[in-house]
Amino acid sequence: MRVRVGVQIQPQHGEFDRMRRAWREAEEIGADCIYTWDHFFPLRGEPEGPHFEGLTCLASLAENTQRAEIGALVFCNSYRNPNLLADAHRTIDHISGGRVVLGIGAGWFRKDYEEYGYEFGTAPERLRALRRNLPIIRERLTRLNPPPLRDMPILIGGGGEQVTLRLVAEHADTWHVFADLDTYVHKAQVLARQCERVGRDPAEIEHSVSRFDRELPRHADAYLEAGVRQFVVNTGGPDFDLSLLREMVTWRDRLGA
After folding, report:
1. What share of the chain is helix, strand, coil (3-state, %, to 5)?
2. What interhelical angle do 54-63 and 82-96 show, nearest 10?
3. Residues 30-63: pLDDT tens digits?
4. Residues whose CB is less than 8 angstroms from the CB of residue 208 and which lie 6 or more positions away in sequence, other chains included
5. Residue among 162, 165, 151, 158 at smallest CA distance from 104
């Protein structure tokens, strides 16, 4: 499994045109994957600051790039009917020429739920909803006319050991987690056990990691040795600083030199 580098360009605290330029610049730098996210308000900085909706951003991202895979880290299962989410991704896949990854998670940001009228409920309830909807999404993708331009990859985000990693073992092509190295290693071991329980080869699942700090380049070799194959850095507005992406692309390219 080849090593890939991605960037999550967060649609917060910035102008849309500047974010659009960041998508294009990320692809020029050499990002393998470019992601948005799925929130209605900023997660950092001024809580009522500028922000844009994720699914619409993904459609624009499809039009403004040519090569990189695109998706979200991650769409919230609670915010859309699962059949609609599958159909929207299929449509955006055609816009992109077949580059979409369907990223999904159970949801966690209370403010999004309460401000937009969704029932927040409990974490177990949100996980049960994700478990229910994943087969619906996969089945709808097989029924759409026209279908996606490829067998659309499913990315599941999260590290919950009892439910989320079981769902990763059952459904995901890529697993994404925000984690330091020790936490990643532990979660990867749990995922391997979940794969064993469902009869799946864990090597079939790409491991993708981000960090909440700016230390991913410093630890990249150790993550690689531990099993990570996709490395995702993060940036938001107003500047959409891509310096960490440049570092990681340089590191990736040295691996293949």
Report:
1. 50, 20, 35
2. 20
3. 999 999 999 999 999 999 999 999 999 999 999 9
4. 6, 155, 174, 175, 176, 177, 228, 229, 230, 231, 232
5. 158
pLDDT in tens, 152-199: 999 999 999 999 999 999 999 999 999 999 999 999 999 999 999 999
CA dihedral 198, 202, 205, 208 (to 10 degrees): 120
pTM score of the predicted model: 0.96
For the chain, domains (ranges, CATH) are 4-255 (3.20.20.30)
Q: What are 148's two structure tokens?
A: 């996606």
- What is the rounded distance in angstroms from the CA atom of residue 256 to the CA atom of residue 57? 32
Rounded CA-CA distance 227/204 in Å is: 12
Lookup: tokens for 125: 């309830």
